[in-house]
Request: fold
Amino acid sequence: MSASAFLKPLDRAIVKATQAGLPLVAEPWKAVADLAGVREEEVMESARAMLASGVMRRIGAVPNHYALGYVANGMTVWDVGDEVIEEAGRMLSRLDFVTHCYHRPRHMPDWPYNLFAMVHDKDRAKVEARVEEMAALLGSRSRGHDVLYSTRILKKTGLRIGA
Amino acid sequence: MSDLDSIERRIVNEWQEGVPVCSRPYAVMAEKLGIGEAELLARIESLLARKVLTRFGPLFNADRMGGGFLLAAIAVPEARFDEVADKVNAFPEVAHNYARTHALNMWFVIACEKPERIGEVVAEIEAATGLTVHPMPKLAEFFIDARFAA
Reply:
């Protein structure tokens, strides 16, 4: 992306300078500030504001879950009544093995599923056991479900703010 | 999986968030881990080089930055899979693309600077492949923060 409507110029400069990682130097925000041509304190203030507004979710280690052995990646999809979607979504998102949970539209007749919950675990058998647990939890709120495993990464460039 | 010593395990498990925004954040972390700042920096570099970590730093919420994002899926005939993957991946707006186990077997994310461009990219992918693109926009998100224990 080459521009962003809602980011202030300094925020944008911070995203660009840190999206691949916080500089691994003793004073990383000073390094970012030098790149942006501003004072370190201004950069730290902007970073704190982005954390507070949720533009930055958090700062820390981002593990490669494949390297940690979480190699089975199952996209579980559920056909949940529209009247209980909020409740069902909250139930699934509270499970510690669910990493993302979204309400998305159905595409009838081929795609009846409207609730997506991503489950990562060490192998498919473990994912299947989690899915059983989720199905039991949802009970009659779910009229059907499926699990889509990723078999190949075809492209992964990530989201990048460009020059 | 890469073998981790106890310090590395603590870096991965205890520092997925909460790195303070201050002049010397690594010094603050290092003190809590009982090691020196230089040693911590070397260990983070090593975890990155060994691909235990994909990154160390801020995790951004792309949704809050503006721009448009769309998850979409295509049912690709097996015989055309690689050819269609090449055509879809050729769009710079396609950020991720995964093969998945379903009749809808290709799932990708379209990311555009201008949200109104998303619909055009969908139409262009349909024209390039001759296949129907099923948009799966996010109607609501039920929040969690992904955490992985080492």
Chain B has a mean pLDDT of 91. The CA atoms of residues 81 and 106 of chain B lie 9 Å apart. Chain B touches chain A through 80 residues (CB under 8 Å). Chain B is about 35% helix and 20% strand.
